[in-house]
């Protein structure tokens, strides 16, 4: 079944993961990216990639299906695979005993916030940021406080200290929900910045929860640093997953991780958090971390190429838009304020260019007049989308 979908592309794996599918093939997909908008729209919005599944992952899932191995999850294969990947790629010694599976990234994040704070307490975030960072803590009765990124898209430590003051002002507890690497800007926080986060948080008594959904995707020259690996982060918590880097949102899963002084907090997360991961999700994610390295390297190379292509296309077709290429994620944060399209240029691009990008507005302060564009697609689709966006201004 898998092979019949792959056809010629199988010969090219891991080759160029972003050059293996045509627009017609992609339009057969039934996932959110391809079914939310009419067929004349090029979808460059939600964080799904236009790739085939890496061969070791497809094999793990199809082997399980062939064997009828579709029962409940068991064992620590996912945690061990993440630990092995962390040792090899990030020179980080993660103790699998301080790792628990969770159903997905955001459920893990929410559960950590629930363990560390009470309703009415504060969650500090760096806007503009992934919209669920605003919504999910708020659904759970936490007060969300923004510490906007600086104009260079990096953490503004003065704003962060101010937000911590505000967060603790009423005598409660606070969590700093760090997005590392940062969605939507693609910023990869440097080790020195993360150490400063740890120091500042310790000074204020704020607990850090690091969302590292995009961690494996960082280009080697930018060096991703896990938050829990930095000095002073012993009481931190973090979540990561294969979902973004290997395009597995359809096979949900993630792991929650704790520094040595936060192991007790990880243990307080409810039992159903760990047992609710799907068995096939856990198998797929473990295969990704364990055997998906060559495919990931090929993908990261294709993304670097697309990033260059996008910068050139924006310069040519949208010269008044500003794009600051960053080494993390496959998301580009475009400042369209000089295009004269108002606060929500995404609405214009959807209507007039038939290109779906994310509106910057739900990303919080700093989102007005911005759009987020997902460039994990083929060079042809990417080029056509930016051409259409440029032509829509005439
Ligand atoms: C920073 C970040 N966290 C979490 C998620 C969502 O992960 P999940 O679907 O596993 O909850 C995403 C998805 O794009 C993301 O970019």
Which spans of ≥5 residues are poorly predicted at pLDDT below 50?
1-12
CATH architecture of the largest domain: 3-Layer(aba) Sandwich
Rg result: 21 Å
Number of domains: 2
CATH class of the largest domain: Alpha Beta
**Large-scale geometry:** globular
Q: How much of the residues is beta strand, in percent?
A: 5-15%
Helix content: 25-40%
Number of beta strands: 13
Category by helix and strand content? alpha/beta
Blueprint (SSEs and pairs):
Layout: H1 2-6, H2 23-27, H3 32-35, E1 42-43, H4 55-66, H5 77-90, E2 99-102, H6 105-116, E3 122-125, H7 132-139, E4 143-146, H8 157-168, E5 174-179, H9 191-204, E6 207-211, E7 237-240, E8 254-258, H10 263-268, H11 271-275, H12 279-291, H13 293-317, E9 322-323, E10 331-335, H14 345-353, E11 355-356, E12 358-359, E13 370-374, H15 379-391
Parallel strand pairs: 1-11, 3-4, 3-5, 5-6, 6-7
Antiparallel strand pairs: 2-8, 7-8, 9-10, 10-13, 12-13
The chain binds pyridoxal-5'-phosphate (PLP).
Q: How would you sum up this structure in a few lines?
A:
The chain has 15 helices and 13 strands.
Describe this entry's structure for a reader.
This protein is 40% helix and 13% strand. With 394 residues, it is an alpha/beta fold. It has a seven-stranded mixed sheet with strand order 2-8-7-6-5-3-4, sandwiched between helices. The radius of gyration is 21 Å and the shape is globular. Pyridoxal-5'-phosphate binds next to α6.
